[in-house]
Every structure is written in structure tokens, then in C-alpha cells.
Amino acid sequence: MPINGLNTFNTIVSGIKSLNSEATSLTPSAPVYLYEIDFSEIYTQTIYINVENQPVTNGVLRIYNDVNLFNYVSNTRGRLYWQGNYYYPFPIIAEGFETNAAGTLPNPKFIVANSSPDGNINSFYKFARMQIQSLGDLAGCRFTRIKTFLKYLHPTNFTNNINPFNTEGNIFEVEFPKDIFYIDRKSLENKQAVEYSLASILDIEN
Known about the structure:
Layout: H1 3-23, E1 31-38, E2 56-57, E3 60-64, H2 67-72, E4 80-82, E5 85-89, E6 92-95, E7 109-113, H3 124-134, E8 142-149, E9 179-189, E10 193-199, H4 201-205
Parallel strand pairs: 3-5
Antiparallel strand pairs: 1-3, 1-8, 2-3, 4-5, 6-7, 7-10, 8-9, 9-10
């Protein structure tokens, strides 16, 4: 194996070992969940949000919903840097991704609140939400959940470029295998929120 290939392999192995160690630790750092909604293959028109630092890039909305994480991050608008992209705070709840003890398959969904978390009716949350809702039921759009831990966030997210939760200081931006689903339908909409049901690629094809 070429030296560069070997170094890459060793880096991946080290990252996996560190991630597994953190997951089984008695005192792990806080879990971090990031979300991506990919409109690009379903809606060819550009989604444009007329605000600075818009959260949609190349047809992909990248977001997170964690008040504590928002308070930790020192970047503009609370945006979080992860593997070359920025993720923005957004009023989303995603649940139902885990397989239970009985072996029942996941039945995930996500909910987008109709209220802006910052209380500003003219905020970029409102613009982003309006753009999403204008696209209809979003059926077929890919939804990705990324899971990692606070200690693996890149140092550039923190004051003085130091991640205070990573004492090792040499392993960053490692994650669990992505949870990838597709939006099946809009299952609920009212004044408070809009709910979307998700399905696996096998369910979609069937």
C-alpha cells in the first residue's frame, strides 16, 4: 500500500477506535446530531434564501437543533463547521431512527416548527422555512442524520480555535455511519409545525 494510502487508512482506523471508545465511555461528551435535507435531485430550481450566510448550499439544507451546542459555537449565526460544510441552527426535531429491542425497524420522522427560535419574525429561519414549505410535500428528498460527539467538532468552531472537550487534540470530525432516509410524505401540518414521514430506500422502491 502506498505511504499516503497507509496514512489515510491508519487515520480512519484511529478515528473509529476513538469513536467507539467515546461511545462506550462512562463519561462521554455530549452527542451531536446534524441533519441534511437534499432537494437537488427532486427540485431543479435553486433554493435561495435572501439573507447573509444562507443555510442552503447546492440544493442541500444543513442544520442542527441543540441550544447547548449553539451556545458553545463561536461562529457567526451559530453556524457549525463540519467536514467542509456549515450547519445552521434550525427549529427541527428528528426522531424514530433507532431500532428497538424487539427488532422493529426504524420509523423516523422530522418536524419543523413554525416559530423562529430567536423570536424574530424576519429572521433567516422564517425565510428558510417558507422556502421549504413552498416545495410541497418534499417526497423523494434525501434526509441524512449525522451523529458524532462534542469532542470531535473541529477547533475552528470554538473560541481561540480550541475544542475544550478534546484533550487528545489530534482526532476530529469522525462520525458514526450516516442514517439515510427519504421523505415519504407530509404527514401533518398545522399552525405550530409541519411533520414529514421518512422511509428507507427499500420502502421507496417498493
